[in-house]
Each structure stands twice: as C-alpha cells, then as structure tokens.
Specification:
4-stranded antiparallel β-sheet; repeat; Guanine nucleotide-binding protein subunit beta-2; WD40_PAC1; single chain; 2 helices; WD repeat
C-alpha cells in the first residue's frame, strides 16, 4: 500500500475525530442500559424450534433464502446454478429455474409471490415471472438489469414493478421493472453494500456494509437519514424490527446488535457462546427473539430485551449462509453450504 499523503492523513484524522465525537455525544445521552431496564421482565422460553422439513434438491452450496408474502413458499439460490421455489408446508419443489450464471449471492421473493429475483457475481439482477413459463417450462425471465460495476449482493422487491438492489460497487439502485430503467442510482457506502432490509411500511430501508456502518434511507431519497457505527468488522446482515423503530445486525466481528432509530444509537450487544462470525440475522414477529446464522453451522437465538442467549439450533453440517423468517412469524428457513435448506417451526 502506498503511503498516504499529508492531506489524506489529515482528512482521515478529522473523520476519526468526528466519529469519536458522535460516539461521545451518544454515550452522554445513553442514561440507561437495555438489560438493566428490562431485568424485571419475565423470561422468554428457550427457543424450541425443530426442523419441520429438510428441503433437498440443490447439489452445491446454498447461498440465499427468502420467504414469499404468503408465508408458505420460499425461494433459494445455489452455486449449482438453480433457483428453486419450495412449498415449505409439503417440502416439495414448486419450480426449478436454471440460471445463466451459477454465482448466486442473493435471492428475493416479491411480497405478492408473482416474481423472484437473483443476482451475484454476474454483476446483474435477473427477474423471473413465476406465473409465466418459457418454452422449457421454467419461469419466464422478464428483466436482466445490468450496468453494475461490482457483484450484486442484495435485492428486495418494493412491489411488483420496482426492485431495490445493493452491490459491490458501493451503490444502491432502484429499478422500474416495467421500463427496465434505473429510477435512482447513487453511492451509498464507502465499501460493498452487503445487505438490505425493508421497513414494515416499505417506505424506508436499512443497509449494512463492508465499511462497518449501517444506514437508514428513505426509498425516494438519495441522502441517508441516519448512519450507525459500532461494529468492528463487515456488517453481513441487517434486519428491520417489526415495530419499524429499530433494526438488528449480524457481523463478521462475532457479534449481533440492536440499533434504535429514535435514540440514534446501539441498544443491544449480543455474543454467542462460541467464537464465530455471523452471516445473517432475522427477528421474530414480536421482535423479542433475535436469530443469527453463524459460521459454526448453527443458528443462535437471544432475548432482545434482556440481552441473554436463549438457545442454539443445530442441524446444518456446514456454514449457515442465510435465514428468513416467514412474514406470519410461524416458521423460519435456513440454508447452508451443506447444500440443504431447513424449515424450522
């Protein structure tokens, strides 16, 4: 690495001092600890999820899973070059969609259940219409959204006609799917945008990045509303709280955290019994349980209010890459490098 010139060094110091000032101001108004305030609350039971279905069909690492709005179907993307739409109630495959590129990093199911999307190392987001088939019988490809200068790391549907994407070129894009054009395209972070989570009102979203920060955005604005610091390594996953007032994160720094939007700072700090980084996170429908997929092949659970570990879900035989809680809160899907997808309930 070349040495920084004096101007760059001065700017870096100024930035570090500003971050320290912000943290000091936050600590000044943090008049209580979450665990202390909630100490007299009743304990939640240890998490007792069991594997209801093991979905087998992929023949390589499964990198991403996402539930449909109906809480029954989910879509998974794997390095075997297939998207599979599953009926999680029966455990059957509904559709198998062959991809042009096997390097899938993110999948998304439209809340309506009409479309699925995926993207990864092919530097594009591909959208499929679940209700229309092509000549081979697979879901019809309706859009290939290209023009990224880095891998596609995350995608989420705003509705059937708009999709939000984050990518390795540090950008966030909002696409109009009917026109096939970008409505917004802007630099969001100082590193890869790794994860996106939409708020309950679908009007705001949070992002996590390799630059160790998380940001809150309005769907129609290119300027971040709030920026959150705290992690010491890549933020691999973010998940909006069902209340719309907070969000959870999972990081390579071996912690999961809870940030509050109203107080503009971190409320909870969650560590696993072992010593492994986190790949993904999710919150229960009530927001009381925080779940995080881990490098140690397990999904860990905490009581968000009392900040205590409430259990470990062990079944996968390799790294858990992604988890998704059904919108109705009844089940959770997890996928892993062990080539399987599990439905817990």
């Amino acid at each position: 690495m070349p040495k920084d010139d004096p101007e760059t060094t001065a700017l870096k110091k100024e930035l570090t001092d500003l971050i320290a000032k912000v943290k000091a101001a936050q600590e000044k108004v943090a008049d209580a600890k979450l665990a202390e305030k909630c100490g007299d609350m009743g304990d939640v039971p240890k998490i007792r999820f069991v594997t209801k279905k093991t979905l087998k069909g992929h023949i390589n690492k499964v990198n991403s899973v996402h539930y449909s709005g109906d809480s029954r179907h989910c879509v998974t993307g794997s390095l075997d070059g297939k998207l599979i739409i599953w009926d999680t109630w029966s455990g059957n495959k509904v559709q198998v969609i062959p991809l042009r590129s096997a390097w899938v990093m993110s999948v998304a199911f439209a809340p309506s259940g009409n479309f699925v999307a995926c993207g990864g190392m092919d530097n594009m987001c591909t959208v499929y219409d679940v209700n229309n088939r092509d000549a081979t019988g697979a879901a019809k490809m309706v859009r290939e959204l290209a023009g990224y200068e880095g891998f596609l790391s995350s995608c989420r549907f705003l509705d059937d006609t708009h999709i939000l994407t984050g990518s390795g070129d540090m950008k966030i894009c909002v696409w109009d799917l009917e026109a096939g054009k970008r409505e917004m395209d802007f630099n969001a972070h100082a590193g890869d945008v790794v994860s996106i989570s939409l708020g309950p009102d679908m009007k705001t979203y949070v992002t996590g990045s390799v630059d160790r920060t998380c940001k809150l955005w309005d769907v129609r604005d290119e300027k971040a509303k709030q920026t959150f610091f705290g992690h010491d390594a890549d933020v691999n996953s973010v998940c909006y709280h069902p209340s719309g007032q907070a969000f959870a994160t999972a990081s390579e720094d071996k912690t999961a955290r809870l940030f509050d939007l109203r107080s503009d700072q971190q409320l909870g700090h969650y560590t696993p019994p072992g010593n492994s980084g986190f790949t993904s996170c999710a919150l229960s429908l009530s927001g009381r349980y925080l779940l995080a997929g881990s490098d140690d092949n397990a999904v860990h659970s905490w009581d968000t209010l009392k900040v205590v570990h409430t259990g470990t879900l062990n079944a996968h035989e390799n790294r858990v890459t992604s988890i998704s809680v059904a919108p109705n809160g009844i089940a959770m899907a997890s996928c892993s490098w062990d080539q399987s997808v599990r439905v817990w309930g």
